[in-house]
Amino acid sequence: xxxxxxxxxxxxxxxxxxxxxxxxxxxxxxxxxxxxxxxxxxxxxxxxxxxxxxxxxxxxxxxxxxxxxxxxxxxxxxxxxxxxxxxxxxxxxxxxxxxxxxxxxxxxxxxxxxxxxxxxxxxxxxxxxxxxxxxxxxxxxxxxxxxxxxxxxxxxxxxxxxxxxxxxxxxxxxxxxxxxxxxxxxxxxxxxxxxxxxxxxxxxxxxxxxxxxxxxxxxxxxxxxxxxxxxxxxxxxxxxxxxxxxxxxxxxxxxxxxxxxxxxxxxxxxxxxxxxxxxxxxxxxxxxxxxxxxxxxxxxxxxxxxxxxxxxx
Length: 313
Ligand SMILES: C[S@@+](CC[C@H](N)C(=O)[O-])C[C@H]1O[C@@H](n2cnc3c(N)ncnc32)[C@H](O)[C@@H]1O
Hints:
The protein is of the alpha/beta class. It contains ten helices and 13 strands. The protein has two domains: 252 residues, Vaccinia Virus protein VP39 (Rossmann fold), CATH 3.40.50; 48 residues, no CATH class.
């Protein structure tokens, strides 16, 4: 996965005014805050640029993977609301994956971040992004109705009570809600809270859960998935990395007012592919199983192509 070329070029323009060392320092500060689940702080311009350079590619890859998984299972949306939009990461992914979209509305409380997002969007080749509506306001303010509501890496910045209030205000005016959080035990914990809320609201789960029963993953395990993103030279330098790619781990939940075709199971860990035998952890009907598929089975070909995060049959 790579960022769209127009987005990558716009990010490099945003980073150009800062020296590599200034950006590296800001990126390291950002990574520490991210690991500590501290709220975003974009008041310092170098911090905003560092977010674009080191976090936006990873969050884009995660959101893209989630929306791709949902896109075949939900009614094509015509309107999309990106809440806690930051630089508009989720909107870029939605614009790439949903040709049905006619309008995008983004809500972001930080003026510098919203302004940065507007500059990035104006460099896009997509008229949808170019003409998106931005509201610089807190999520606690009024929210327009939309078919699809995206909450990407923002719930970590709300208290559990604020999250519930937000869902209660959002749900009556949307069809589908997609929430993405860091793939850490804490991020998964927030997803579980939202899952409970969605089930109590009689929502239909779209992904990743293939059932409505209690989540069978037990601590120290937790439900999360990987998205691989190519590293640019700048990204490698800023993260002092040697590998040419980064695996972003994320947890997520998508739910809707309309029933969705869901698979029987979900692959919740990396498949082990040996000679003639493939094994993977499978979440299905409230249970966590170790699924073994041998060469003689009809599903062997599907298993050979299966990855962590895929629906299974
Ligand atoms: C970690 S960033 C994620 C940005 C973007 N959604 C992404 O995936 O790249 C979280 C964003 O949520 C915004 N935010 C946090 N709490 C908010 C609130 N109560 N109202 C509006 N925006 C909020 C922050 O300003 C920040 O830009």
